[in-house]
Every structure is written in C-alpha cells, then in structure tokens.
Design goal:
The chain is α/β, with parallel strands linked by helices. 39% of the residues lie in helices and 23% in strands. Keywords: DNA-binding, Transcription, Transcription regulation.
Length: 315
C-alpha cells in the first residue's frame, strides 16, 4: 500500500469522477485508475462504485476513507513540523468570508503572503452558516462571519464590529413616522432581507420566533445595496446593519428595532483549539494583530471596530 494510492482514492471520492481527480492531481487519468485498482486488489475489496454517472465509495471504501485521510494528514504533519522547527513556513491556509464587508481582507492576505511566500492561500465566499460548519470540520482555518451576541460553540472569535440591526423604509412609508418599534410591529408586514444562512437573517428569525411569529419575507437578496434600493422604492422594510442604513439617510428612514433589541457582530473566527497547521495558526496570529474596525454586519459600515487583541492567544 502506497501513500499515492491513498491520495488518489481520497481525491476520486471527493471529486466523484476519475477525470476531475486526475486533473486535480496533475497526473494522467489511466494512472489514477490503475493505482486504485492495485489498492483494491491488495485489500481484496472494491473501494469505489463505478457503475453510475458519478463515482461513489462502496461501503468498504467509505470505511477506508477516514483512515486514508488520517494517513495523508499525518504525512503532511511531519513535513510541516520539520518546516516549523527549521523556520520555513509552508503548507496551505483556507480562508472564508461573508459576501459584503469593509474588512481589509486583501491587505491581510497580501501581507501574509509577503511574509510567507511558500504558503498557498485560498479564499472562498459563502453564508455564515456554511462558513461556521467549514471551520468546525477543518475545511477552513479562519473566516469572517456574522454572529449573534454569543460566541459560536467550539470557535474562538475576534470581534470586528458590533452594531444594531435596523428596519429601514422609504421616507413615504407608513412606518417612517417612527424612530423605534417593537419587533412585533413587523408582524405580517412585507420585509426585505438577506437569505437564510446569513447572520443578519438568523438574528431576524430568532427575534421573530421569540415574539411568536414568522417574518413575512417579501424580497430576498444577497446584496445589501439591493435591499436598500427596494426599501427606498416603498416595497417594504429592509432589515439592514445600522451603520449601512444610516449612511443612506437620503434614501432611507432608519428605525431601531426594540423589545428585543436586534444586534449582530462581524467576527474573525477560528477553531477554539487553533487551526491544525502552523500556516493557519500564523495567519490567525497576524489577523489578530492587524484587523481592526471598519467592518459592517453582512454589509459595509462604520469605523468603530471592536477588536480584542488582548484575548487569549491562539495555540
């Protein structure tokens, strides 16, 4: 049994296709097939089901995959440990982010690359729910996500922004006579919101559920700017980060939502035990030193960052 056979098996299982796996591995497809068949002959069991349109692990293959991944991770760990002790940082860091904010993430990644040019960096964009799942499973080393008042379970966070979530309406809207409303005032009214999975939407759903109703979402989009435009045209009340809405006072009348108060935080998050590799740990250390204010909650916004560089160190 060879490590490359295990690598080929894991890659084909993840890609569900021999050709895509070969492209990812930068080897010829027949070579991938041949090595996996050798592994299957050695084990005396078929590991992949090739009968459908996509390749899937057999029952035996599914049982083998965790051990194959662990073996590959152990080898990577050996290499990273040697590099760390000799002062050479290599490896890969995976970073995630919500769609819209004012954090200087490009600057952070560029500075980190300048300091550690041998580290490969990848960046992906998704909803907060997806990013939190990917952090917990180790697919990501760090991510910028939107959360509520409590820290996500199993994760460490650096608060980048803590601000109210407001209802914003056009100046001719019937709610524009109010500066503050209770959450129950939104019951049955057409609301304009980010999609499910975003932190802002989660805070809205939680508050409405506590008040005993489900919000009526008339319009849903992932761009806060579009939400603001829809509200300005009188199509409903947009649920937006406070600073984002306040910056558009010419278009929108901003209403504080109370009883309960709606608030959200934008944070940099990582696994509580720290990223598994030295490159990931180095990135989080740099981020904690350099990231400050100027971020919004699922949108662009204000200058009043809430960074906590004096929190517990990342292992």
């Amino acid at each position: 049994m060879e490590l490359r056979q295990l690598e080929y098996l894991v890659t084909v299982a993840e890609e569900r296709n021999f050709t895509r796996a070969a492209e990812k591995l930068h080897v010829a497809q027949p070579g991938v097939s041949a090595q996996i068949r050798r592994l299957e002959r050695e084990l005396g069991q078929q590991l992949l089901d090739r009968s459908g349109r996509s390749v899937r692990p057999t029952e035996v293959g599914a049982a083998v995959l965790p051990y194959a991944r662990a073996a590959l991770a152990a080898v990577r760990g050996v290499r990273l440990a040697v590099d760390e002790l000799t002062g050479l940082l290599r490896g890969h860091v995976s970073v995630g982010t919500v769609t819209s904010h004012n954090v200087d993430l490009p600057g952070l990644l560029a500075d980190f690359h300048d300091e550690h040019p041998a580290v490969e960096i990848t960046l992906s964009e998704a909803t907060s729910d997806r990013l939190l799942d990917d952090l917990r499973t180790g697919r990501l080393d760090a991510a910028i996500v939107s959360v509520g008042s409590g820290d996500p379970e199993g994760l460490g966070v650096l608060v980048l922004e803590d601000q109210p979530i407001v209802a914003a309406v056009g100046h001719d809207h019937e709610l524009a006579v109010h500066r503050v409303v209770a959450i129950d005032t939104l019951r049955g009214r057409p609301l304009i919101s980010l999609p499910r999975g975003t932190g802002l939407r989660a805070r809205l759903d939680e508050a409405c559920a506590a008040a005993g109703f489900t919000p009526r979402i008339a319009f849903e989009a992932s761009d806060p700017g579009l939400l603001a435009q829809l509200a300005a045209r009188g199509l409903g009340a947009a649920i937006l980060p406070g600073a984002f809405a306040a910056a558009r006072a010419e278009q929108l009348h901003v209403i504080t939502v109370d009883r309960p108060a709606l608030r959200g935080r934008l944070v940099l998050a990582w696994r509580a035990g720290g990223p598994s590799g030295p490159a990931g740990r180095a990135l989080v250390r740099r981020a904690r030193r350099t990231l400050g204010g100027g971020a919004g909650l699922d949108g662009d916004a204000g200058p009043d960052g809430n960074a906590d560089p004096d929190g517990p160190p990342v292992p």
